[in-house]
């Protein structure tokens, strides 16, 4: 036994290097020098799978009544990639801007462009003109894909804009056969850029995150599923946006495992419940916001939700209390929390059913990832049970932001560790826990108050439908915790009742000292609270 092996605890903590090592099996990606695109890689995994997929549905779009089998999807990928290469003079490393709402075409566009070595850059169709201008300046696209409803937001590009709801686009999906495509193959290096995604921008202006084929392949290789999740009859319902990292990776992973995916154009809570009943949905990737809606809504009693088995939850921390209440309401289902970043892909996840008892954890590190817990002020590395900033290193992590050397220098240390900005800790079993965003801690006198901790307590109140906690300026204390609260319909809970209730559950410095009632809590597409928006409203007197 080596010295290093002796110095690694059962939770994966190495006493020598003060790093946390993965307890999962080591993922073995393809040799980096092998020419390989994401599309080629996942097609090879799909073809080698024991699950028959030829006539199985990959995508279902209930709003249009359309569906796409794996066989049809593969044919469309080959046809579209060949058509784009032949008719649009698209070259390897060109960038394609994608401004499309969810549809059956979006995954095909992604996979076709990967096959050509073209970099995709998907954006939110609801983005403002200034946001789109900033993103286009970062990514410098040669071509765009849009719909007749979104195209007017875009400038002209050297190779134009393709409307995916036009007859011309539909013909590109079917006119070239797979046999003809084989002679037209582009050699893609794994080090080539595959995608420029955009960070959520909850603490500042959005940044362009470049991911190579290596980065994405490493994430796919490391991503594990439990044996029960590999059920060939599993059906997933995706309500998350396809331009966001969560939806982006889910599209690819569902294809890799040969699973069926039901897509929604927009999130409508009751429509989601109808779709679960209609398609016997077993799996739902969700944000904590959706978990809360399912927990607190009486509408869930109107529909048969007995098919639900797994909720993959990410985007923001979910409290142990909420998870336990959810389990009591849906005893047949498990919440499998996970953690990932636009800059790094999937980092950790609850996998096996016995791990689900760690209700507040986001799981154990995937097999290609190592981590540190670091004091953000001194740089000292901490051991199990101690809170600090989570630093990460592994093959799925980006090299740096597009066109932003300053942000890159601030995000990486000299040894290549990515500083996540998240306050976290590992327990002695190697489970990771997210406490809060470091930049969002409220500075009350000499204390730091995590908003998420107070939000968990607020959301445990049956009279509160949703809540967020923000810093409010105070002459004496510097900042005080202020709660923005959405009452449950019919509730008349008061500011004093809320403050008294929280005061009984926390240390004096964590008490909520101001409450504002609001109709909604603004959130990012992944469910993160947009605190800057709330702070702006509070300071302007709009709350």
TrEMBL record:
GO terms for molecular function: CoA-ligase activity. Keywords: Ligase. Residues 61-401 form the AMP-dependent synthetase/ligase domain. PROSITE patterns: AMP_BINDING. The keyword Ligase applies. Residues 453-528 form the AMP-binding enzyme C-terminal domain. Belongs to the ATP-dependent AMP-binding enzyme family. This is 4-coumarate--CoA ligase-like 9.
């Amino acid at each position: 036994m080596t010295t290093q092996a002796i110095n690694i605890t059962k939770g994966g903590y190495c006493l020598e290097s003060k790093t946390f090592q993965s307890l999962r099996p080591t993922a073995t990606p393809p040799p980096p020098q092998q020419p390989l695109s994401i599309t080629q890689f996942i097609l090879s995994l799909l073809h080698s799978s024991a699950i028959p997929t030829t006539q199985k549905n990959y995508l279902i779009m209930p709003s249009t009544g359309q569906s796409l089998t794996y066989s049809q999807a593969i044919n469309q990928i080959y046809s579209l990639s060949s058509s784009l290469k032949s008719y649009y003079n698209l070259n390897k490393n060109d960038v394609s801007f994608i401004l499309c709402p969810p549809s059956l075409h979006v995954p095909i566009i992604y996979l076709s462009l990967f096959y050509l070595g073209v970099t995709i850059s998907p954006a939110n169709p609801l983005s403002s003109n200034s946001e789109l201008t900033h993103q286009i300046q970062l990514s410098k696209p040669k071509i765009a894909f849009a719909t007749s409803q979104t195209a007017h937001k875009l400038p002209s590009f050297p190779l134009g804009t393709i409307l995916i709801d036009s007859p011309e686009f539909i013909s590109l999906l079917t006119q070239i056969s797979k046999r003809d495509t084989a002679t037209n193959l582009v050699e893609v290096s794994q080090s080539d850029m595959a995608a420029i995604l955009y960070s959520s921008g909850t603490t500042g202006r959005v940044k362009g995150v470049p991911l190579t084929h290596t980065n994405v392949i490493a994430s796919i290789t490391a991503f594990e599923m439990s044996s029960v999740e590999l059920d060939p009859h599993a059906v997933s319902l995706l309500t998350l946006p396809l331009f966001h990292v969560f939806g982006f990776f889910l599209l690819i992973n569902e294809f890799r495992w040969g699973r069926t995916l039901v897509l929604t154009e927009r999130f409508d809570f009751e429509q989601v419940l109808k779709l679960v009943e209609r398609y016997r949905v077993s799996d739902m990737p969700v944000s904590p916001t959706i978990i809360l809606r399912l927990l607190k809504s009486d509408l869930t009693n109107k529909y048969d939700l007995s098919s639900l088995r797994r909720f993959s939850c990410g985007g923001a921390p979910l409290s142990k209390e909420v998870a336990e209440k959810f389990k009591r309401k849906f005893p047949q289902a498990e919440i499998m929390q996970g953690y990932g970043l636009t800059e790094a892909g999937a980092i950790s996840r609850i996998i096996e059913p016995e791990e689900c008892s760690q209700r507040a954890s986001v799981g154990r590190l995937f097999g290609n990832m190592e981590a540190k817990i670091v004091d953000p002020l001194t740089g000292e590395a901490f051991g199990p049970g101690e809170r600090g900033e989570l630093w990460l290193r592994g093959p799925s992590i980006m090299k740096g932001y597009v066109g932003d050397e300053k942000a890159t220098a601030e995000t990486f240390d000299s040894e290549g560790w990515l500083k996540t900005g998240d306050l976290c800790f590992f327990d002695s079993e190697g489970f990771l826990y997210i406490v809060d965003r470091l930049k969002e801690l409220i500075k009350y006198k000499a204390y730091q108050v995590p908003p998420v901790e107070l939000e968990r307590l607020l959301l445990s109140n049956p009279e509160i439908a949703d809540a967020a906690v923000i810093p409010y300026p105070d002459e004496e204390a510097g900042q005080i915790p202020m709660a923005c609260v959405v009452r449950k319909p019919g509730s008349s809970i008061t500011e004093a009742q809320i403050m008294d209730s929280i005061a009984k559950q926390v240390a004096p410095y964590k008490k909520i000292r101001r409450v504002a009632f609001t109709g909604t809590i603004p959130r990012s597409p992944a469910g993160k609270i947009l605190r800057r928006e709330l702070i702006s409203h509070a300071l302007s007197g709009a709350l």
